[in-house]
Amino acid sequence: MVSLAGNLHMSKISNPVRPLLSSISVVYVCDLFVPSQETIRSLYSLMHSHFNDVNLILVANATNADLMIELKKLLNSLPEITVLVLSQPQTLDIARLVGIDHAIGDFVFVSKLDLRETAAFPIVIDYLREGVDVVQ
Question: What pLDDT was estimated at residue 97?
């Protein structure tokens, strides 16, 4: 396990063969706003430079009509996104677990899609290449 905030804790995969970074699922929970198309396109560009297949899962946690309109526009412009709509408000942990349950990648990255986390993607990917199985 690696913790990017504070002390580093590493837990190596016992398998000596380095994992191929073939696919990743990125889970994002939408509570108040939908990420911009530019944010998602830059995320895809970054992830496709390290992975063969990228799957973005947006979990809409008890959305209102305005958020649903924004999600529909985003889905129409970027059809490779999976949108999951929760009918009732859930805790952030439950919403994330719903997204993780629908992830199809070899790796799952749960993100807030903010600039700090996006900047940390290359660091996280380096740890994955080294065989670290959990980065938090």
Answer: 95
